[in-house]
């Protein structure tokens, strides 16, 4: 028996979070020392989740360096 198409993508519905929840925002503000005990819990600024992908650039640079050293060795 096959699965109905509307039920197939249930695992795909959970996407990555783009904004932190209230508790997570308070922890982030506390770590940045922008939070005090008197601060209201409502009206907090929205904080985007930022993920930086640096590893790919480093790999490309390493490959370029390796290729450059290989060509130097092969010519000498």
Give structural notes.
It is a single chain. By secondary structure, this protein is mostly helical. It has one domain (18-75). The protein is built from three helices and no strands.
Q: Could you name the key traits of this structure?
A:
mainly alpha; 3 helices; 76 residues; 46% helix; 0% strand; single chain
Count of all domains:
1
Structural class: mainly alpha
Mean pLDDT: 77
Helical stretch tally: 3
Could you tell me the strand content as a percent range? under 5%
Q: Measured on Cα atoms, how large is the radius of gyration?
A: 24 Å
The quaternary state of the protein chains shown equals single chain
The secondary-structure element order is HHH
Share of helix among residues?
40-55%
- Could you list the spans in which at least 5 consecutive residues all have pLDDT below 50? none
Largest sheet: none
Number of strands: 0
Terminal CA distance: 66 Å
Shape: flat
SSE topology:
Layout: H1 5-8, H2 22-31, H3 55-75
How would you summarize what this structure contains?
This protein has 76 residues and is mostly helical.
